[in-house]
Amino acid sequence: HTSIIVHKDEFYYGAGGISSCAPGGTLLGPPDSVIDLGNTEVTEEIFLEYLSSLGESMFRSESYHFFERNCNTFSNEVAQFLTGRKIPSYITDLPSEVLATPFGQALRPFLSSTQFHPPGGNTFNRENGQS
């Protein structure tokens, strides 16, 4: 699971769409590691407008796919918007590396149907930034 912490909140994407919580606030708890991608000049207002547009286009809840459109693709997209930097390729390449193994191929049908949504956050919406 990956997410982006910006403007004092953690934002992530799962089967429930774009959500937010206090940093480390999902039931997954604190992260195993944190990668500092730098600072942003993007204001909170512009960022929330951007998230709203993503939630209505690329990252709708029904668009979630465990291997192709997941928390990693969301984090990568948002990181580029905020800082111009991508998240490390060892993270974004992980789904294709798993699928390249016999074990990954055996698990693909199950994992493709999985609707992962880390509990503990608030679903993001346009009116107030979250619900």
TrEMBL record:
Signal peptide span: none
Record EC number: 3.1.2.22
Protease listed as a keyword: yes
Organism field: Bambusicola thoracicus
Keywords (A to Z) from UniProt: Hydrolase, Protease
InterPro entries, per database record: PPPDE_dom (IPR008580), PPPDE_sf (IPR042266)
Domain PPPDE: residue ranges: 1-112
Pfam (any one): Peptidase_C97
Family: Belongs to the DeSI family.
Catalytic reaction equation(s): S-hexadecanoyl-L-cysteinyl-[protein] + H2O = L-cysteinyl-[protein] + hexadecanoate + H(+)
Record keyword RNA-binding present: no
The protein, known as: palmitoyl-protein hydrolase
Gene Ontology process terms (BP): protein modification by small protein removal; proteolysis
Any GO molecular function: peptidase activity
Matches recorded under Gene3D superfamilies: PPPDE domains
Top-level taxon in the UniProt lineage: Eukaryota
